[in-house]
Amino acid sequence: MSVFGSTFADDLFVTNMPIMESELFLIIPLALVLMVIVFYIRIGIAYRMAKNRNRDPLGWVLLSVFVSPLLTWIILLCVGDRVE
Q1: CB 51 within 8 A of CB 82
Q2: Which of 8, 37, 65, 74 is the most exposed place for a label (fewest CB within 10 A)?
Q3: 4, 17, 49: which is closest to 60 by C-alpha?
Q4: Are the beta carbons of 42 and 16 closer than 8 angstroms?
Q5: Could you report the per-residue pLDDT of 9-20, keeping only the tens digit for each?
Q6: Domain locations in the chain?
Q7: What is the pTM of this model?
Q8: CB–CB of 72/44 below 8 Å?
Q9: pLDDT by residue (tens digit) across 40-59?
Q10: pLDDT tens column, 65-82
Q11: Contact call for residues 66 and 57 (beta carbons, < 8 A)
Q12: CA of 66: how far to CAs of 10, 73, 82, in Å?
């Protein structure tokens, strides 16, 4: 607020408004659910990549769970298809 009263910029940015507790109870669980869904999608991609390359999907899924799905994808791309 300026010396001469409220300005347009002061009206645009309301900084004294606290986040309602009910909003937090909604935002946090939704964010957690979204993170879990994205994690399972990334693991599913590692599973399909391993299966399409004739590799053991369980081992690659475990690697992606404990290390990183992105790193698992890179390793699977580097090792290529398994020749039987």
Answers
A1: no
A2: 8
A3: 49
A4: no
A5: 555 555 555 666
A6: 18-79
A7: 0.66
A8: no
A9: 999 999 999 999 999 999 99
A10: 999 889 999 999 999 888
A11: no
A12: 49, 14, 23
With CA atoms as reference, report the closest residue to 63 among 83, 43, 37, 79.
43
Say how far apart CA 73 and CA 40 lie, in whole Å.
14
Say which residues have a Cβ less than 8 Å from residue 13's Cβ, sequence separation at least 6: none
Two tokens at 81?
A: 């298809």
Structure tokens at 30: 């939704």
Q: How far is CA 55 from the centre of its chain?
A: 26
Length of the chain measured in residues? 84
CA atoms within 13 A of residue 24's CA, in its CB half-sphere: 4
3-state secondary structure of 46: helix
